[in-house]
Amino acid sequence: HCSTTTATKTFQKCTTLPTQQASIAWTFHPHNATLDLCFFGTFISPSGWVGWGINPTSAEMTGTRALVAFPDPNSGQLVLLPYILDPSVKLQKSPLLSRPLDIHLISSSATLYGGKMATIHNGATVQIYATVKLVPNKTKIHHVWNRGLYVQGYSPTIHPTTSNDLSSITTFDVLSGSAATQHNNVDMLKLVHGILNAISWGLLLPMGAVTARYLRHVQALGPTWFYVHSGIQLSAFFLGTVGFAIGIRMGAMSPGVTYGLHRKLGFAAFCLGALQTLALLFRPKTTHKFRKYWKSYHHFVGYSCVVLGVVNVFQGFEVMGEGRSYAKLGYCLCLSTLVGICIALEVNSWVIFCRKSKEEKMRREGLISGSDKGSGIHSGTHSGIHG
User: Fold this and answer.
1) Is 262 annotated as a binding residue?
2) 31 is in an annotated binding site
3) What is the pLDDT of residues 5-61, one digit of tens each?
4) CATH 2.60.40 fits 13-180, yes or no
């Protein structure tokens, strides 16, 4: 819930920002293109910092002209200093040093909610006031905000890198008050991306591997197991490709947000999935001398793809901030059920294998006749996705 009123000023409009329980109140004066605003943020540490800024060119952290509030390391009083977040900040090559902004900042100040008796603590609310002269006829502004745990001297340190912290960017028109639709679009794409990839890489792909490992030994099915396996895997790869493409699109729409590990795992899983699909086109006949090498390759790449896919689904839950959600619980239940089925089938396969081995030994010793038949499952159990 946002407020247009503070202890010292009243503003015309306000909006609640999408992360960190932050909000902005503002008044825009069209006749001279001046923007009066107040940013409301909260500290997450007594020695931390809270910052707000404007990016003149794009909706990302790099390039932001920021005002950062934190306790003075000498006096403990709240100070507000200007910073320019150039590309070196993201690389953390050197401490972030305060310097004058190259935008027309008319005035700025910061106060703690609660007046002079207020202290900086975890959860303390800070109000950052600024009056900025905007470029004429340019009222759509990219706002960037964040908060961190520590300040070294007068240099704010890196902020946390959770999904919310990396998404603390929004764009809205200060004249009309209408927010840009991109944030909503990204949220929808993120949801679709997560659902598609959890189903494809996280469930269908392991199910396809299970069908190849256990159904291929059921003689009554004949070649049906192969068509079931191929159908499941191709469906998984198709859905996974759509999810992968949405992820690439989200990355393009959010240039300031990067998830290194999730991205790398996604690329690796997609490449292995593509190799598996191509391998289907070059599958040698069972009598071909290269068949055994193809099978080894297919098994190794297939299982690697399954493992990477499942690991990246869990990584995706963390990236989306859903590490303790019902969605993750539901996925874990589905995956646990699949693992339980695998264990049961594996035990059954070994029981049949041991029984048939014993029968074969007795047959060789002449204790039973060669006409006795075992079950309809071959004794050889091959690990891996179909050969």
Assistant:
1) yes
2) no
3) 888 889 988 888 888 889 999 998 888 889 999 999 999 999 999 999 999 888 888
4) yes
